[in-house]
Amino acid sequence: MIAPAPSGPATLADFEQAATQEHLVPLWTVRRRLAGAEPYLWRWPHVRQRILQAADLVPLGGQGAERRVLLMLNPGLPADRTATTETLLASVQLIHGREMAPSHRHTAAALRFVMEGQGACTVVNGQPVSMDVGDLVLTPGWCWHGHFSEHEEPMIWMDGLDAPLLRSLAAMMGEEFPTPDRKQPLTAARDDSLELYGAGVLQPIDRPAGQLNSPLLSYPWQQTEDRLNRLAERDGSPFDGLALQYTNPTTGGPVLPTIDCWIQMLRRGEHTQAHRHTGGVIYNVARGAGWSVINGQRFDWSAGDVFCVPGRAWHEHANASAFEPAILFSINDSPVLRPLGLYREEPYQDNGGRQAVTSTFV
Amino acid sequence: MIAPAPSGPATLADFEQAATQEHLVPLWTVRRRLAGAEPYLWRWPHVRQRILQAADLVPLGGQGAERRVLLMLNPGLPADRTATTETLLASVQLIHGREMAPSHRHTAAALRFVMEGQGACTVVNGQPVSMDVGDLVLTPGWCWHGHFSEHEEPMIWMDGLDAPLLRSLAAMMGEEFPTPDRKQPLTAARDDSLELYGAGVLQPIDRPAGQLNSPLLSYPWQQTEDRLNRLAERDGSPFDGLALQYTNPTTGGPVLPTIDCWIQMLRRGEHTQAHRHTGGVIYNVARGAGWSVINGQRFDWSAGDVFCVPGRAWHEHANASAFEPAILFSINDSPVLRPLGLYREEPYQDNGGRQAVTSTFV
Amino acid sequence: MIAPAPSGPATLADFEQAATQEHLVPLWTVRRRLAGAEPYLWRWPHVRQRILQAADLVPLGGQGAERRVLLMLNPGLPADRTATTETLLASVQLIHGREMAPSHRHTAAALRFVMEGQGACTVVNGQPVSMDVGDLVLTPGWCWHGHFSEHEEPMIWMDGLDAPLLRSLAAMMGEEFPTPDRKQPLTAARDDSLELYGAGVLQPIDRPAGQLNSPLLSYPWQQTEDRLNRLAERDGSPFDGLALQYTNPTTGGPVLPTIDCWIQMLRRGEHTQAHRHTGGVIYNVARGAGWSVINGQRFDWSAGDVFCVPGRAWHEHANASAFEPAILFSINDSPVLRPLGLYREEPYQDNGGRQAVTSTFV
Amino acid sequence: MIAPAPSGPATLADFEQAATQEHLVPLWTVRRRLAGAEPYLWRWPHVRQRILQAADLVPLGGQGAERRVLLMLNPGLPADRTATTETLLASVQLIHGREMAPSHRHTAAALRFVMEGQGACTVVNGQPVSMDVGDLVLTPGWCWHGHFSEHEEPMIWMDGLDAPLLRSLAAMMGEEFPTPDRKQPLTAARDDSLELYGAGVLQPIDRPAGQLNSPLLSYPWQQTEDRLNRLAERDGSPFDGLALQYTNPTTGGPVLPTIDCWIQMLRRGEHTQAHRHTGGVIYNVARGAGWSVINGQRFDWSAGDVFCVPGRAWHEHANASAFEPAILFSINDSPVLRPLGLYREEPYQDNGGRQAVTSTFV
Lengths: 362, 362, 362, 362
Fold this sequence. Notes:
Chain A is α+β, with helices and mostly antiparallel strands.
């Protein structure tokens, strides 16, 4: 039989303090955590200026920085989370002409969406992958990767990583490429994965099947834009306009096990309906200008801006132009949520499916 | 306790006869079945002549034939199996200019590989799918399908079906389209699936995921040939040359749950090594001329010929030309065997990987 | 342009004959195959008498039979199919006291449901597996297996195999155990798989996950009967009474990739409703007496009888007793049909869900 | 061409400060986060005393606490993570005799491992589930659940939740049961899931297949202990002794999509070898006494103690008794890591597989 408690602290407050110090925290004293990712927008002219300043001030490699990167940290999350949404991290990176970023690898998966410049290249496990504006380039988890430039000009891109998720899972590990110059030997032909797997429905019979990570490492802008234009007259999604998923040719699913990548076109004058879902999203405005309404707050954006929609925030998108399409590249963590039964989606029912705007982000 | 047998037939022979008549067949009287699919080849000039004769003699639809089709039945299998390999059936079909083959559906999946002519169209669940020489067109199981011609000329194609497998599974069912004219109303834009899903790695976000049957119904020759040419200098497979799989964009796997479709190029002068595997294969020579050695027998082939390699037969392929590639389209049943743990493969070890030729098919 | 046909046979009949001889069979001459598995019943008193006669007449091993087995061949299928339903084969087997059936293996999967006697044992890949009346014992594909008796008495069981399916897939292969005496050395403890995996929900952490074949080789009658009795008051299925599936503990699914095994209890006086589905079923009456109505024909059965229901045949079951349960063991091929999208099921709508009986099987 | 940067902050330090304030944090200023879960141990006599004190001081329900729970928060993690390992949370809970904890549900999955007392019951979606010492009881995500006592005595158990993971995924949601008394109506028989699914290898044919969450809600101690005793002489794992996984009968895998539950026996005098793996583990000492060495630090434990091993920490276990077994219940997050390709394991190679002890936890 359970005995009565030995005499302890005289008051509840004393008890709570004592127990808490012993790492036995009374549940009823825990405040519901209010902190969480917020909607936020980073404007391109400003981000661009800052990364160009960093380009002047910070050398790369050797005694300099491992990467010349500015992290877009969500103001609603503790700084030590180093995150843009709960699970994803966006940053902007610049590499100078003729510069080289040393090779390393980490369990975190990464991708690049190229924003400006020319002539850079990412080396993934010995394979040089070309980078041009609008291209999506993958460096799946635990692949060796570095960057170099073959041109006079700098290049700027947005990085997307699942590092916050991996830290949440205590699964973040990494190492430097084990040669003094930290330069991978080039062991595959340039853009070999694009050549082999890039044309989609016809695939080599001897490829590995059902790979978690796409063996296709690069999705060039030209084919992306062609597809959008080709399907521009389709109905698309009421919440996302004409939206396409970049797919892993060995599974028909997301390109990375933790990150799903999308490209979506808001057609001339298109204004979508609002919905919400679990899982945060980071957007990069690839073309045009418009606005999104996130939990009643209006975020105006134009090309190069990056903004985030936290999980379960109501959101809708609008193209500001009646003449030109607007195009959004985005990344989300639904591949993690779905197999756990945690992905949920809900349309906004009131007001014809559109939110009332109660404030504007400045 | 088990009692001794009541007195029965005096001799073993009497017993065997009596039991057999009672559908209780003694195992030791059953001869190992020697019958099985044989390697065989149907020559195009002759097949073409026969189907043209049928075109003169047999009307289509109404009181005529449901389909103007000649079945390529394997001489090694009982006629009632109606099969080219144990699980697959190939046939040749002709539709006259301006003719219509009435719509029906069946649980068997079918595909067409177009051989000659122009202007025909397959309607699949209300969607018209264009047909040109070299195109692969799918009609997955239980989809309504019919054919019509919009041109003066006839068209000839090879059909591939899993009907023998479905009969083995007692799962063959079918029905006629339920209108007097048996003509499907056209409810989708022409080649709509090609438009939506044909470009491979970028796919609509609202497509169904992980479909058994490819939602993409058509794989045009032009893109097939482009891929082959583009990858022509690759190593490819030692047994199959440069071989590509037609894939289902929602899974990255076979286009049909029961049939895998391949296109393979034997480069100038290429002669592959021999191997064998479970699962039969039916080949259609799309381009060029050469020969295959199947269980030591040489089969010379040229464009339009159809030949089959039974499961577990040793086989190797050779291009007869030092100047032109040879291209083989083929279908196999490995998607059925693999998930059951029944797919096995073995390289030919002796003689440098090539069989001694002991006879020639004439 | 497709040229007119060269002059050929003058009449359609001549053409059809000529083409057929060339293995180019006109589709319109092919009669819909009427042959197919039929409902049939093998009565235990008679089957038992026959196998006891065989026990007197046929020696086992060496110069005798490999197995003392009588095959229950479906009268509706061609004899060369060697099948009870399109994909499954049932047979009855007897082993004398102190006898040994030599070891072999084959790609076909097999199972035993023990009917009478005691003291026999199946050796599966070196592991002796006990056999008692009502036990289900598995020998998955390509496992070495033989039988021996440790007792004076003979034992009789029903075998179930997927051999007809494997022949349909041209995937039937086999070999003898490679020692002169064809006796496997015993390398595992007796009933080791039962000890390790038999208790279901708690499983060793180092077991292989997601195995096609159950690593558990034996499902003893005692636990089977206990489960049935324990759940006897549950509603169960309207078509099958209280029906349980034997499961593979590594997947929660069927025990073999090609064969699903069931045990079902018809409670006192229970008479189920009729339904039909693709996939044939072979039943073994484990306890009691009753009848099934299959496509309007009544089949009366009692303990030890074996009967089959072909795919797509309407069927319902009734327990003849108001005092005792009737128990049916059965095997079906739904694990093959389901992943191919070929499993379909339909309840009988008319007449309160029960068929009119139009004849009786005698 | 990318223009030179407009003039900005004069020094790197100024730049870093300015950018950081703009939520554009220079990567090179981010210190590698040193914080992470630490090995820690909560001693049962003390935990028990504290929860008994809470029992005196804190009323349950209504104006009192929702649950009388003390959270075991890892001292190495920020308090706002509310976590025992990065993804899992353990706590101790007490319910008084005749008391009721109101019903609620949340997306987080939970389980209880009962430590002391008798007569309590968890209601899961209307089904009362009995609780006795040593039982494992599941409340999968989004199931309504409450607790009540039918006895005079209190009951104490350990809770395990995936709440830290769900907060990391921004997927934590919850709601109260929508009646004034927050008491679920009882709509299923007591321990119904145990009756239906608890016997493992024979499962109802009409159960749902492949469920993420186990439909079996309760794993009674008696069967757990029986299995351990039955398999006690087996080799087991070099790192974990005789270890069994609680399994979901519909998949053969973990009982919850995010939490794997184990029971393991260290046999008389057993001392395992060290290894490490990604994914943290929380242990509850169910029987006996012994110690674990975690990253060189010795943690002595006895029955009722709770301790955690963070991901990637070397660990080995020892039973202190030469006469009695020690039994550990544990939970880990490997079901989340494995499908993402993030589960890794490594044996300790030096020193015969055992760590040198450099300190002792007090």
